[in-house]
Amino acid sequence: MTAATTRTLTLGVIRGDGIGPELVDAALQVLGAALAGVAELDVREEEGGARAYERNGTALQDDALARIRGEYDATLKGPVGLPGVRRPDGTEAGLLGGVLRGGLDAYANVRPIRTVPGVRHALHPDTGRIDHVIVRENTEGLYLSRGLGVRNDRAAADQMMMTRHGVERIARFAFRLAEQRSGAPADGVRRVTCVDKSNVLRSYAFFRDIVSEVAAEHPGVELDFRYADAAGHDLVADPGHFDVVVTENFLGDLLSDVAAATVGGLGMCPSGNIGDHAAYFEPIHGSAPTIAGLDRANPVSQILAAAMLLDHVGLREHGDRIRAAVDAAFAGGGVVLDERGSPTVGTAGTARIVAGLLSG
Ligand code: NAD
Ligand code: IPM
Ligand code: MN
């Protein structure tokens, strides 16, 4: 510790499955470099995921939620889950989405989609700068049925549920975020795009009506609408139009992976799961088991998740420095992605370069 160190940051860490541990190592290295002389990291590991389920019969220890809520400033989570580790009902046993998001009431899943100049991406021709945030409702919608659906050998059903409380709070979150941003890249307009399928389902019409009510409290932000199918198209064909997107849990899950392809792939995309009393930060992607342990995973998603964590704990200046270092690593040609989205210098090499830029 240097004399200038002023605080201790108590960090919950879930290393996760597949590429999780190598990504978390990369992010902790970068965090250490970003916080040198500023804060001491006190890392508290929590076992979680599919391997933890195999070992312990549970994907997360019973008392972990209380620690994440009460003892840690915030939690950094690697991806979890392995497709082979399933329950008798056919769903995966090693996932933590329901446990953590529901258990912590982390209702806002914040998924920034941002061009890093110099990164290879899927858009030909290039449609211009992309900088939007998908705000995915995280505690209800279709996924509220996790573990609650019904199934026999002739039929199966999962239900979608929206509550006024749930939709109001995610809509307010989205409008407040738009007020803090500088608008859509294409026209500078501060905008919230409500994405739903209100042409077909009552639950989505309910969502749209409530988002419209909340919009009236935020006159400085334009409200527009997309049906989710067209939103998928426009996120690819006209991404500069978007500033903040607010949407239901399941749609947000799908559309954020679509949008990731426009900025260099899943390995470029972080997320925050933010509630009023706890938050945790992770990549938007999964455990990519086929490339685990091969030093091929892009750690930028996890590194940028760590930057979001710093924003959340009041260290935004240092989060900004991490984002700038990631940009510089690509702009300088030190990190290059191959056609599969893997950095040619490897996972550890990418972390070294980004950490080096922060220390230098
Ligand atoms: P995935 O996101 O793990 O992988 C999809 C594709 O993207 C694969 O080709 C993979 O190699 C690639 N990829 C993902 N992250 C990458 C990175 N950082 N760098 C380079 N390439 C990367 O999705 P999947 O294969 O559908 O799921 C694998 C497992 O992860 C499943 O068990 C799934 O349930 C789980 N999962 C967990 C989370 C989470 O913990 N938040 C999220 C999504 C999926
Ligand atoms: C995500 C993931 C999770 C989700 C799963 C794996 C629980 O896909 O965070 O995007 O469905 O939300
Ligand atoms: Mn997903």
Question: What does the model show?
Answer:
This protein has 360 residues and is α/β, with parallel strands linked by helices. The chain has 2 domains: 1-114 and 269-360, Isopropylmalate Dehydrogenase (3-Layer(aba) Sandwich); 122-262, Isopropylmalate Dehydrogenase (3-Layer(aba) Sandwich). 37% of the residues lie in helices and 18% in strands. The protein has 11 helices and 12 strands. It has helices at residues 20-35, 50-56, 64-70, 97-103, 164-180, 202-215, 228-237, 249-260, 300-312, 316-331, 346-359; strands at 7-14, 39-45, 74-77, 108-114, 131-137, 150-151, 156-157, 191-196, 222-227, 244-247, 270-274, 279-283. The strands form 2 sheets. Strands 2-1-3-12-11-4-5-10-8-9 form a 10-stranded mixed beta sheet, sandwiched between helices. Helix 1 (20-35) packs parallel to helix 11 (346-359), helix 5 packs across helix 6 (202-215) and helix 9 runs antiparallel to helix 10. It is globular and about 55 Å long. Bound molecules: nicotinamide-adenine-dinucleotide (NAD), 3-isopropylmalic acid (IPM) and manganese (II) ion. It comes from Pseudonocardia nematodicida. Residues 10-354 form the Isopropylmalate dehydrogenase-like domain. This is Isocitrate/isopropylmalate family dehydrogenase. Keywords: Manganese, Metal-binding, NAD, Oxidoreductase.
